Amino acid sequence: MRRIERLAQAWPHCPLVVTSRPAAYQDKAVLAGFAHTTIEALDGPAIDGFLARWSRALFPERPDRAESHHRELVAALASRREIRLLACNTVMLTALAVVHWNDKRLPEQRAELYESIIRWLIEGREQRPGREKSQRCRQLLADLALVMQTAPKGRQVQVTRRWAAERIAHRFERGLDSSDPIERAEGFLAAEEIDSGVLVRRGHQLRFWHLTFQEYLAAQALAGRPDAERAELLLTAAPAGTPALYRPEWREAVLLLAGVLYLQGEDKVEGLFAAVLDRLGPAPTLADQARAAGLLGALVRDLARMALS
């Protein structure tokens, strides 16, 4: 911040615009002589204006191609509600535009869509000095998502940074650095709030930028567990009597899990279906059969897009 202030003093007649993520500016003194403003959620005209300028930047010598690309982007963003909600945020709108450019489309299946977005958010900042490698960042974020999803008092969507650091500290116990693993985990979380945007701060609380990011990363963590361990977590009845698989706060994570498993191989999805059916037992009640049929039907509908893409 001192460098920016010195630059402004050295060039007093040069207009300066300084941007940052909110987390990078919290608890800091406002830059002297600068007006402070916050970018609000984008409305329809603002989104369209961004997409038009984005397309013209991609095809500066081909206005006809720029207009065609603009129309493609508008149609892709309008195709599904979850995409329209993401597009209201400037970072996520950029991510969607990049994913569309890289893949020539926006993925039809939600697990593929969130994979593409999160991969871009994490890998796009990998070159920053001192930053963890993208694969390790993903592992740490997935660990955190799963412990928040499976918290003993029920799913947590917002926690303190200390709470989060304590849950992933075991990943920082190895290596040459002998400093406190919890402090190192806190440092990672603080940097992640600024770097990728997958995590954000709300006062003294930490949360995933979008709840579906938490649910998708929890699904990623679950997909990496042994089949028996995953089935135990999802299908063993909780104290309240309802297995996680059927609880409302788990529905989205389970649907996304099916998509993640599908990408690993169809036999993985079949294993999930078999585990659900096997847990019914030899003489299930009509209510149990209906509950299982409803869940499996939702999984089949969600996976249908993946099979067609």
How far apart the termini lie comes to 48 Å
The largest β sheet comes out as: 3 strands, antiparallel
Mean pLDDT: 85
The chain-level structural class is mainly alpha
Which strand-content bin applies to the residues? under 5%
Question: Brief overview, please?
Answer:
By secondary structure, the protein is mainly alpha-helical. Helix content is 61%, strand content 3%. Among the domains are: 44-106, no CATH class; 216-308.
Walk me through what this model shows:
With 309 residues, the protein is mainly alpha-helical. Among the domains are: 44-106, no CATH class; 216-308. The chain is 61% helix and 3% strand. The chain has 15 helices and three strands. It has a three-stranded antiparallel beta sheet. Residues 23-27 have low confidence and may be disordered.
Strands, helices and their partners?
Blueprint: H1 2-10, H2 22-25, H3 44-58, H4 63-78, H5 81-86, H6 90-103, H7 110-123, H8 134-149, E1 159-160, H9 161-168, H10 181-195, E2 199-202, E3 205-208, H11 211-223, H12 227-235, H13 251-264, H14 266-278, H15 286-308
Antiparallel strand pairs: 1-3, 2-3
Helix pairs in contact: 3-4, 6-7, 8-11, 9-10, 11-13, 13-14, 13-15
Task: Throw out a few tags for this protein.
309 residues, mainly alpha, 3 strands, 3% strand, globular
